[in-house]
Each structure stands twice: as C-alpha cells, then as structure tokens.
Amino acid sequence: MKECIRLKQKYPDVISGYDFVGQEDTGRPLAELTPLLFWFRKRCSEARVTIPFFFHAGETLGTGTETDLNLFDAILLGTRRLGHAFSLYKHPLLMNMVRDKHLLVECCPVSNEVLRLTGSIMSHPVPALLAQGVPVALCNDDPGILGQGAAGMSHDFWQALQGFENLGLEGLGAVAENSVRWAAYEDLEAREWTEDVKNGAFGKGLRARRMKEWRREWEKFCQWIVIEFGADEDFEREAGDDDGELEQDDEDDNDDEEFALEDEDTDEDLEPVKGKAVKNQGD
Fold this sequence. Notes:
The chain is 55% helix and 8% strand. By secondary structure, the chain is of the alpha/beta class. The chain folds into two domains: 2-229, Alpha-Beta Barrel (TIM Barrel); 231-269. Helix 9 (168-181) runs antiparallel to helix 11.
C-alpha cells in the first residue's frame, strides 16, 4: 500500500486504482482487511492522492460464504467496479443496489468456464444481471494464463454472442460501451466519478469525449455490417418485390384482355350517333 501511494505520486497518470490479487476463496476476506483499507484511505488523503478501489469480489459458487459476502463489503467500502461478481445474481436486493449506485460488473465468461464456475456459457449469470439493468462489461481476466493470447477480447465477445439470447449485436455494443464509460481516465473523487459516469457522453470531461469517439466508431462498424453482410438479404428482398410487381403486371394484362373481349362482345350492339357510341334503344 505504501508503494502504491509512492508510485501514484511519482507516476500520477499510471496508477488509477487499488485492488487485491489472488484466488479469492483461499485469501483473506475484505471484512478482515477493512482496518487496513481504512488506514490506506487515510494515508492517501494525507498524501493528497486519489486512489479509488476496484475490488475483485464474489468469484465463487458458494452462497453466504466469506467470498460471497465480499460483494457486500466491496460495495460498502466504495468500490467503483466489481471484478467477476459471479455470485451477485443470487442477491436481488444487492443487484438493485449495484444498479442504483452505477457500479460496473466486470464479467469474464471464458475464465469462468475454464475455472469451472459454470459448465457452459449457456448457464452463465450475465443474462440475469442484464435483465435487472446491472451495468456489465466483458473482460478476459488472465489472457496470458488462460490462452487467449493476442486474440484480446474476441473469444469472450464470441462466447457471449453465441450463448446469451438476450444480447445480440446491439447488446454487444452496449456492453462494449460500458467499458469506455467506466474506464478510469482521470482522478476524480467519489461524487465526481458517479456524476461523470451518469452523464456519459453528455458530460464535459475526458470520459464524454471518449464516449463520443466510441459512438462514432460504433456507427462506422454498424454501417460496415450492413454493407458487408446485408447485401444478399436486400437483394433477395428486392428480387421478391420485383416478382410481385411482375405478377401484378400480369394481372393487369389479363384485365386488359378481359376488357377487350367485353368491348368486342358489345360492338355489334352499338351504332354511331353524332360521333358517339351508344346502345340501340330496342336493346
């Protein structure tokens, strides 16, 4: 903690937050570390540096265990994001609190499968969080260890798209935008951070500029999707419309033939009268 404060003073643009690292189930719970965290916060204030918490919490299958309860303590300690939060879906009231406090959940679907927290992407709790309006971002946890390598986020986004029926392309866009929205761009106090996140692209700071840049790039991507993959569909639709027009033209031609036949049938009953064709009075 002392080293973190020292590095923040020396490299203020490099250090953006503080978290604990390690397997959560085998480590010490946040409740046990609370006195130390209060000391750290006090030292940060004395050193006039802002180092917020971004706690890893709830990466467990247990319910009511110390690891599961880390979710509660992380929120009480003022974390700005929740790493994994796999067990959050078991706590409806806590989900509502996370949503109302504008906290982001960093979900790692591939990592959760590899570590056997879920048997497959189909049983991952992300859809439950999205259904409750909880802000979610997709993360790859430990790509160097888990094998994603240079693929970055591609595997996680592909898994989510294939496994979550309530996501779709627009859902992937919203999840990706959350990564931009909840990123730590500059030092902000808790109240400023929350207000800045709420304002999003309508704010005035660096976050707003980055979100506007993201939306422009997303619009270009969506246009590329339409041009690259929508051509065949549009062609089929246009071809179908043309077939319909041809069928309508054929029907119109048949109608013209019927009118012509009717005219032929009545020609013998007509006689010219002052340049007009009228029926005989006897008929």
